[in-house]
Amino acid sequence: MAQRTEPAGLKLRLAAAQRLKAVLAGEHFAPLGPTELADGRDRALANRLITTALRRQGQINAMLADLLEKGMPAKSGTFEAVLRLSLAQLVFLPDLGAHSALFLAVEAIKRDPKARHLSGLMNAVLRRAQANSARYGLMDEALLLPQTLALGWTAAYGPEAVLRFAEALVDGAPLDLTLRDEDADLVTALGGERLLADTVRLESRDRPVEALPGYDDGRWWVQDAASALPARLLGLPAGSAVLDLCAAPGGKTAQLIKAGYKVTALDSDGSRLERLNANMARLGYAPRVVEADAATFDPATPFDGVLLDAPCSATGTFRRHPEVLWSRSAGDIAGRVRLQRALLANAYRCLVPNGTLIYCVCSLEAAEGEDQVAWALDALPGLTLSPVKSAELPGLDGAVTPKGFVRTHPAITPGEGNAGMDGFFVARFRRTG
């Protein structure tokens, strides 16, 4: 009996559906790699489908409400993920063709024992979507952002900024790199442009990160322009002892070593520390690495400086991780706030008198930023604010607030470029007692 030949494109559709299903269930999005799809073109297409479905999740939610009179079927396996991928293709990726969206969607759920009974529904829903694709393509961009977040961000950053947030969500993020050494020829070879200090931005690329010039030689590391700001603000003399709390995967650790500090990199996750160690080995850096709980770590000798990049809601990273917009609740943020306070209190205990503490989060929420500063100044005796001055971040005047915090977001443009940056909050403290 002849072996059955799978339709072209089905394998990547199945892989994309499994990954999207996991993300919709709460997992962190990671692009499909060579182990899931060996063919680079298939991999690129599958990741394009997934990211489009995630970036357009709010609009697709509205389509589903319009198309499914009885709502999403319960216990239906990959049905929802396949349907979202297909709607993303039909409405937002018309260059991929409508026929393949319908055909492969039905074929994909036929391969799923928990969804195959819904093949007729899948076909009917997608044919209705195809008939209404022009109308769906003109859906309000306000649907791109969850209403609760959009209202809070409008109050905090203004309506024009929030419009830019929606545009940034759809556009995604460019690739930012931090250079290990000054090297104009490398910038040219990368096809990038200087952004701020030692940050280089690649607006587009045609190959994986690992294949870019200088990767194997450890001449740069991936780091968003906003994420590169906190380490630059320590302002301590070379040779100072600095503790990098919650350090993995090591971008800020590398910056601190490059600045000439004696660095201890601490993280509680052994697997993430393996990644940090691999990154440091590639760069030729050798920090002291400690696996411990940042909330209880008790050093024998206190540090001149502590950099705490605290776990947070990560809402500021939505350009690269659009799933965070729909997976964060008020309860999640409240839990993060409690953890951040425990970490701040221990970071304070790890400091010498007159030591410097940098607190930062990749969050756009005041509860994790400005409100935490107010708490720390009230709860930790002898901790004072050391305001950041605009002159410390040339080209980013708009990111320094009147109180001396740093607040970046996708509507703030660094340097001469026209693309924004991640949402980050940074505060600098001094321990006087």
Account of the protein in words:
This protein is 41% helix and 14% strand. It has helices at residues 10-24, 40-55, 57-67, 79-92, 98-110, 119-131, 133-136, 147-157, 159-171, 184-190, 229-232, 251-258, 270-283, 324-327, 330-349, 370-379, and strands spanning 175-179, 193-194, 199-202, 220-222, 241-245, 262-267, 288-291, 303-309, 351-361, 383-385, 406-408, 424-431. Strands 5, 6, 7, 8, 9, 10, 11 and 12 form an eight-stranded mixed sheet that branches.
Number of helices: 16
> At the fourth CATH level, what is the homologous superfamily of the largest domain?
Vaccinia Virus protein VP39
Taking all Cα atoms into account, the compactness measure Rg is 23 Å
Distance between the termini: 82 Å
Number of strands: 12
The description of the largest β-sheet is: 8 strands, mixed
Structural class: alpha/beta
- The CATH level-2 architecture of the largest domain is identified as 3-Layer(aba) Sandwich
Instruction: Sum up the overall morphology in one term.
Output: globular
- CATH class of the largest domain equals Alpha Beta
CATH topology of the largest domain: Rossmann fold
Q: How much of the residues is beta strand, in percent? A: 5-15%
Q: List SSEs in N-to-C order.
A: HHHHHHHHHEHEEEHEHEHEEHHEHEEE
Portion in helices: 40-55%
Please, how many domains? 2
Secondary-structure blueprint:
Blueprint: H1 10-24, H2 40-55, H3 57-67, H4 79-92, H5 98-110, H6 119-131, H7 133-136, H8 147-157, H9 159-171, E1 175-179, H10 184-190, E2 193-194, E3 199-202, E4 220-222, H11 229-232, E5 241-245, H12 251-258, E6 262-267, H13 270-283, E7 288-291, E8 303-309, H14 324-327, H15 330-349, E9 351-361, H16 370-379, E10 383-385, E11 406-408, E12 424-431
Parallel strand pairs: 5-6, 5-8, 6-7, 8-9
Antiparallel strand pairs: 1-3, 1-4, 2-3, 9-12, 10-12, 11-12
Helix pairs in contact: 1-2, 1-4, 2-4, 4-5, 4-6, 5-6, 8-9, 15-16
